[in-house]
Amino acid sequence: MSQVPAATRCLRVLTFLASQPEPVPLDRIRRACDLPRSTAYHLLQAMVEEGFVDHLEDEHRFGLGVAAFEVGSGYSRQEPLQRLARRVLTTVVDQTRQSAHFVVLQGRDVLYVVEERAQGRASLVTDVGVRLPAHLTASGRAILAALPPAQVRVLYPDAAAFADRHGGGPASPSELRALLSETRQRGHAVEDGEVTPGFSSVAAAVHDHSGHPVGAVAITYEHHQARVQPLVDAVQQTARALTQRIGGRVTSLAPVR
């Protein structure tokens, strides 16, 4: 038996919530983790206060909070994933002759952790260590579209959550929901000048063993220099290849609500 039972119980709750496609009621958590109701309630309240769990009061359900995703993003930034991403990005840059990158989600931003530049292409604002608003980037949109809708609501509760660069992109929760719905239907994410005028990007999410998006691969190109469909095919193939290399699986995307 663990010498720190409270810590063990918290980890069991987090593991269970991570396996669910959407937030769940207290009683379901209690039964799945074999906890007394009062113990489950107090554990969840503590995790809510620390940001690891979000309480949807109107729905009487609990789901993973932003802090839990930040921990997951921290794992995604470790060297094994960076090394694997760099290998597949090098291949896709050689194939498409366009620049490519791999990002992870941190709160409402994407963090660029791998960047592969194509020779002879214009310089970009993206680089390793740069953060940009997730809702404005193709890579961020690919990740957000693969998250449970309840988690997106936590990240973007109101209009104040939406940063702006050049006057484009979604500016409210309803506009973001519509954009992510289009992304799901299309099967990949796009961005057209919202980050840098004159440049567009296409992106696809990379998934872990549970189907959770751990990051995204994107290709950036100048409007007049590329045929888009070959780049879409390339970015989707690259995301699938990286998903397979980390032992991940792609699950069906939940509908936007």
Give structural attributes.
single chain; 257 residues; Beta-Lactamase; alpha+beta; Arc Repressor Mutant, subunit A; 2 domains; six-stranded antiparallel sheet; 9 helices; disordered C terminus
Structural notes for this entry:
A hairpin with a 2-residue loop joins strand 3 and strand 4 (109-116). Strands 5-4-3-8-7-6 form a six-stranded antiparallel beta sheet. A two-stranded antiparallel sheet has the order 1-2. It starts with a helix and ends in a 12-residue tail after the last helix. The chain folds into two domains: 5-64, Arc Repressor Mutant, subunit A; 70-245, Beta-Lactamase (2-Layer Sandwich). The longest helix has 18 residues, at 79-96. The protein has helices at 5-18, 26-33, 37-49, 66-76, 79-96, 138-146, 149-155, 173-186, 228-245; strands spanning 53-56, 61-64, 99-106, 109-116, 131-133, 189-192, 199-207, 213-222. By secondary structure, it is α+β, with helices and mostly antiparallel strands. The chain is elongated and about 60 Å long. Helix 1 (5-18) packs across helix 3.
